[in-house]
TrEMBL record:
Name of the protein described by the UniProt record: Putative prophage protein
């Protein structure tokens, strides 16, 4: 088999193993190149949510601090989908083993709350960052 990766894919080939598999139907319309992390099949598999949200897995991946650092670099707006108003300033909101980016307004509303929807959104954040 011959694989001709682009420049952005070369770091993947410095690891010990690379998985090559048939293209799933859900990715047929994507352009060639690196598959975005949010489209990775493992991240979309709901049966793996308990694994990815386990404190030991998060710790092995660098801990909540690494997740917070990644969020600060890559997420530029409030991740809480409820409400019509979002302040322009954002903060990292930690909940359980996860973290998410919230605007000041939503952070003030959610600071002392616990809910299933907040937990679900944080689990998705752990998977996709």
């Amino acid at each position: 088999m011959i694989v001709k990766p682009g420049r952005e894919s070369m770091p993947v080939f410095h690891n010990t193993r690379v998985l090559v598999e048939p293209e799933p139907k859900s990715m047929r319309n994507l352009p060639s190149g690196v598959v975005p992390a949010v489209r990775q099949p493992l991240a979309e598999d709901k049966s793996l949510l308990p694994f990815f949200s386990d404190e030991r897995v998060i710790r092995a991946a660098g801990g909540a601090g690494a997740l917070s650092d990644w969020l600060l670099r890559h997420v530029k707006s409030c991740q809480w989908p409820h409400g019509d108003y979002h302040h322009s300033e954002t903060v990292i909101h930690r909940y359980g083993t996860g973290a998410m980016v919230l605007c000041w307004h939503c952070d003030n509303q959610l600071r002392d709350q616990t809910s299933e929807s907040l937990g679900n959104l944080l689990t998705k954040t752990c998977l996709h960052g």
